[in-house]
Amino acid sequence: MQQYTVNLKNSPGTGYVIPLGPVNLVCMVTSRGLVGCGAFDVGALAGFDYPAARVRPTRSASIVTIDDLLDGTIREANKPAENLGVKIGMSGKEALDLLS
């Protein structure tokens, strides 16, 4: 597992890249929520009232790195994340800034 710190608008976020065989599980956790790759179930996290969104890649076929996550496009956001301003179509970095 690799761990990264990324400076966001209001506070730093912690990014994680976890190798799972041929793919990586990639996410960034902020003070108020999470943005992750397509493997995350943001609907299930809504059941805990936890703001979460997932991104689709824009640079390659999948999210492999933290940079891919930041550059990706939000494809799904749960209601708690939407209540904080996260919208489908914004970049991962924009969503993370809102959740920081």
The arrangement of helices and strands along the chain is: EEEEHEHEHH
* Sheet of most strands: 6 strands, mixed
Number of helices: 4
Tell me the number of structural domains. 1
CATH topology: Hypothetical protein Ta1206 fold
Lateral strand order in the biggest sheet: 1-2-3-4-5-6
Q: What fraction of the residues are assigned to beta strands by DSSP? A: 35-45%
The CATH C-level class name: Alpha Beta
| CATH homologous superfamily label | Hypothetical protein YunC
In whole angstroms, the N-to-C terminal distance is 23 Å
CATH architecture: 2-Layer Sandwich
Q: Which term fits the overall shape? A: globular
Report the radius of gyration as a whole number of Å: 12 Å
In terms of topology, how is this protein built?
Blueprint lengths: L1 E6 L4 E9 L2 E7 L4 E3 L5 H5 L5 E5 L9 H6 L1 E5 L1 H5 L8 H8 L1
Parallel strand pairs: 4-5
Antiparallel strand pairs: 1-2, 2-3, 3-4, 5-6
What does the model show?
By secondary structure, the chain is α+β, with helices and mostly antiparallel strands. It has a single domain (2-99), classed as 2-Layer Sandwich (Hypothetical protein Ta1206 fold). It is built from four helices and six strands. The protein has a six-stranded mixed β-sheet. Helix 1 (42-46) links the parallel strand 4 (34-36) and strand 5 (52-56). It is globular.
Concise structural overview:
With 100 residues, the protein is α+β, with helices and mostly antiparallel strands. Helix content is 24%, strand content 35%.
